[in-house]
Amino acid sequence: MFDRKDIETYRGYLILQYDGEEGYRVDFGTMRSKLVETVEEARHLVDFSLSPEKWDSV
Predict the structure, then answer these.
(1) What is the mean pLDDT of residues 31-57?
(2) DSSP assignments along 1-58, one per residue
């Protein structure tokens, strides 16, 4: 198991960084997000996941 560093909680979701990775991920509970370069990009992933409009575009 990889060690992780908890960066912050944003809108109820943990943004974290795993050892050996240069970027950040969001813990969505049953899965981790894709790797992004900045905390700001991780926040955008959370915003997108909570957006009701996203379901109309998929």
Answers:
(1) 85
(2) ---EEEEEEETTEEEEEETT-SSBEEE-SSSB---BSSHHHHHHHHHHHH-TTHHHH-
